[in-house]
């Protein structure tokens, strides 16, 4: 579950950050002008990129925490680490 979410968030970062930059450079008269003329478009773009970047980092933290519990507390791991808990987002 974590790896699927991480791949999704990283792909969104690439799409919204890298591809929008490429499109702005390729089409300066249309797409770049739309970003320059519309403050809300720039604001929404920056919020979306930051959101997916933060979600990506938190997925890595959740995955690492789960692995830490499995290594250091193997007898309690089944209580704290389950697919159901991962899907619901209820962690420790």
From TrEMBL:
It is found in: Membrane. SUPFAM superfamilies: Family A G protein-coupled receptor-like. The chain crosses the membrane at residues 6-27, 39-61. Its main location: membrane. Residues 1-92 form the G-protein coupled receptors family 1 profile domain. GO terms for cellular component: plasma membrane. Keywords: G-protein coupled receptor, Membrane, Receptor, Transducer, Transmembrane, Transmembrane helix. It is a multi-pass membrane protein. The keyword Membrane applies. This is G-protein coupled receptors family 1 profile domain-containing protein. It comes from Bugula neritina.
